Amino acid sequence: MTALLQIDRLTASYGSVQALFDLSLTLEEGQVVALMGRNGMGKTTTIRCITRLLPATGGSLRLAGQDVTRLSAPRVAQLGVGLVPEGRRCFAPLTVAENLLVAARPGPWDTARVCALFPRLAERMTQVARTLSGGEQQMLAIGRALMTNPRLLILDEATEGLAPVVRQEIWRGVRQLKADGLSILLVDKSLKEIATVADSAVIVERGATVWTGGIDGLTPELTDRYLGV
Ligand code: ATP
């Protein structure tokens, strides 16, 4: 079976500073894969490479078998990679409805379905994004990515800095997306929540994949060694 996302021995640099040394990862269609590792180990850099916001200096990225290593960021988005970047970016002066509409591309996801996933957004359709709470902005950022009807949704720290009750709403949404069959790559610090949704995990340390396996294989020894502070 061809994987939806196949990353092989990826390398990448910020100017003269190398950040990725040997990053490999496989995500099958319909799977949720957690990309894990301590701060600064290369998770966001990996995501920037997948979305082509940062060029890879070596290795390869394949999407459903197609080599996307050298494609432009808009082309990769067109091929179905939907990104929810760190820091929940929305268009601050636009309303919730406008934020969703400007992202829309044909497919099963539309405003009504996003509102069904996150009912809080339904109550705020005419409110400008800048006046939303952090959690609502995050729901909107996820909604915007879904409106592009992605084949692969990438969530970078989607629950970072949010109140526990809002985190729960977001995790409920992510579990719903998984149940709907969406393929998801996620970065998050909450092991407990990751365990409820991820099929497998990839641990990255200093820009290299050091462990890959089913989520049940993520033992306390591994988490202490690679994720402990
Ligand atoms: P965090 O959870 O803190 O976001 P991360 O695993 O996502 O961590 P990255 O942001 O991918 O880590 O960072 C990997 C390495 O690349 C780090 O050493 C970081 O300092 C470096 N780095 C990240 N962004 C830049 C940048 N714009 N310019 C230079 N170096 C960068």
TrEMBL record:
Highest taxon above the source species: Bacteria
Signal peptide residue numbers: none
GO biological process: L-amino acid transport
Domain ABC transporter: 5-229
Keywords on record: Amino-acid transport, ATP-binding, Nucleotide-binding, Transport
MF GO annotations: ATP binding; ATP hydrolysis activity; branched-chain amino acid transmembrane transporter activity
Pfam family for this entry, one: ABC_tran
PROSITE patterns for this protein: ABC_TRANSPORTER_1, ABC_TRANSPORTER_2
InterPro entries registered for this protein in UniProt: AAA+_ATPase, ABC_transporter-like_ATP-bd, ABC_transporter-like_CS, BCAA_Transport_ATP-bd_LivF, P-loop_NTPase
Family, similarity comment: Belongs to the ABC transporter superfamily.
The name this protein goes by in its record: ABC transporter ATP-binding protein
Native source organism of the sequence: Aliigemmobacter aestuarii
